[in-house]
Write a sequence for this structure.
């Protein structure tokens, strides 16, 4: 990876969240002059004579004026986050103090850091690969246990380690293929074709699993969208209120009460679910309600999970089957929810259940959960069904990707490897095989950054980071 993009400037920024109510703020500097610049305004020990990974108490001064009492942490490259000399100043979390300190440090020779520039330097200086750097942003944005675990795994090289290993093997085989070209007249083979085919198959399998994991990873990262659908008075709003344990949606016996969508999120065992209560599905002459019905169907198209509520009194098996088939699209998880079992004295399987199961299982749904939407204990079984379905999307011991850029690169790499396989089948010459292998390598390497990555791509990736990271 070329490091030509690394700036020689010393950069400075607030590393903690601006506007936070905490007592302490941290200002970070990175670059060859980080220690020298800080030393010019720090009254205490001579920072240039201190060991790495030490903390020192003193004051920051502008001339004779004391701006604040601080703790200064010293990290000497390459044993730092950016692989450069890094200073972190822990100061009191006053907007005035922070602005004075940063302005003073810039006056002494530092430059205000751009969004993500500290992590960009860590990547360009070899501290992490590109997929690990992108995981830093995911870690900062993680809002639940599951997304945190995925981001931490990616930061530790969970995705890139296996790709790096296979990439090295592909490079070795490509070199042997190209070496054969130098001995073309002698008709020799340096690359073991059987071993090469096995490697391509293994890499295809691994990439295919990574691509499949995106559906799970993206849902975890952004929260799983769950559309609550059914006829008017099926109990959708009651269910939402029970899930949230608060009166969020208006509940009424009057059909058509919910005319717009209501969205709320809850965390269930480390996974965030975004529940969407929608207008009841029915033909209506009411213009406003009809708009609500249309929006309800649109929300289903945006959802990962569909909770379809019905009850024995107001629905028939044919109605449920017809609406599920109308709403279904490949990849949608459909959970059939038979509501109001409390009115029957509990759940008893009946002919309606049998008809629905026979018509919809397993092509459209694999779950039918009986509940009373008013009973929180009853709804616990529904929560567990949701968890089971989402967790089933993840393959055991499989790495999870959450980045759409990675998916696109992996799909292109997979297409190139399929061309390599086709080349084996028709005994394609080594130079043409090498062409397809190089294409696969290029796409794999764009994930980890093991090629010169376009400046605009890096700008897009790191521009999404917060200032100071």
């Amino acid at each position: 990876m070329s490091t030509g993009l690394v700036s020689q400037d010393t950069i400075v920024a607030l590393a903690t969240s601006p506007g936070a109510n905490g007592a302490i703020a941290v200002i970070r500097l990175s670059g060859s002059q980080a220690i020298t610049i800080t030393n010019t305004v720090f009254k205490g020990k001579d920072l240039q004579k201190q060991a790495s990974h030490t903390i020192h108490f003193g004051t920051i001064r502008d001339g004779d004026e004391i701006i604040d009492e601080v703790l200064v942490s010293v990290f000497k490259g390459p044993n730092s986050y950016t692989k450069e000399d890094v200073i972190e100043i822990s100061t009191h979390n006053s907007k005035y103090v922070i602005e004075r300190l940063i302005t003073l440090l810039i006056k002494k020779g530092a430059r205000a850091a751009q969004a993500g520039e500290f992590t960009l330097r860590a990547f360009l200086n070899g501290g992490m690969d590109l997929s690990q750097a992108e995981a830093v942003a995911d870690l900062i944005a993680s809002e639940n246990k599951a997304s945190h675990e995925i981001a931490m795994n990616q930061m530790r090289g969970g995705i890139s380690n296996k790709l790096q290993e296979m990439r090295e093997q592909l490079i070795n085989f490509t070199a042997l293929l190209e070496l054969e070209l130098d001995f073309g007249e002698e008709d020799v083979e340096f690359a073991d074709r059987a071993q090469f085919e096995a490697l391509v198959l293994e890499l295809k399998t691994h990439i295919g699993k990574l691509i499949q994991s995106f559906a799970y990873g993206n849902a975890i990262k952004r929260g799983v969208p769950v559309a609550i659908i059914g006829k008017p008075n099926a109990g959708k709003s009651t269910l939402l209120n029970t899930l949230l344990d608060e009166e969020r949606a208006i509940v009424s016996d009057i059909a058509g009460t919910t005319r717009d969508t209501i969205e709320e999120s809850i965390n269930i065992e480390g996974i965030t679910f975004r529940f969407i209560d929608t207008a009841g599905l029915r033909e209506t002459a009411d213009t406003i309600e009809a708009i609500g019905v249309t929006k309800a169907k649109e929300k289903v198209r945006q959802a990962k999970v569909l909770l379809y509520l019905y009850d024995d009194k107001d629905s028939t098996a044919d109605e449920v089957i017809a609406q599920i088939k109308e709403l279904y699209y490949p990849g949608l998880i459909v959970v059939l929810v038979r509501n109001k079992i409390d009115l029957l004295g509990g759940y008893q399987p009946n002919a309606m259940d049998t008809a629905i199961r026979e018509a919809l299982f397993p092509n459209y749904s694999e779950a039918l959960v009986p509940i009373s939407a008013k009973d929180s204990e009853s709804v616990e079984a529904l929560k567990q069904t949701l968890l089971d379905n989402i967790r089933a999307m993840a393959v055991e011991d499989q790495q999870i990707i959450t980045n759409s850029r990675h998916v696109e690169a992996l799909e292109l790499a997979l297409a190139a490897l399929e061309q390599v396989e086709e080349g084996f089948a028709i005994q394609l010459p080594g130079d043409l095989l090498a062409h397809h292998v190089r294409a696969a390598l290029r796409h794999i390497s764009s994930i980890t950054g093991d090629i010169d990555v376009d400046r605009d791509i890096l700008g897009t990736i790191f521009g999404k980071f917060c200032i100071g990271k």
Summary: The radius of gyration is 29 Å. The chain has three domains: 11-127, 141-217+403-449, 223-391. The first strand starts at residue 11 and ends at 14. The domain at 11-127 is CATH 3.30.1360.120 (Gyrase A; domain 2).
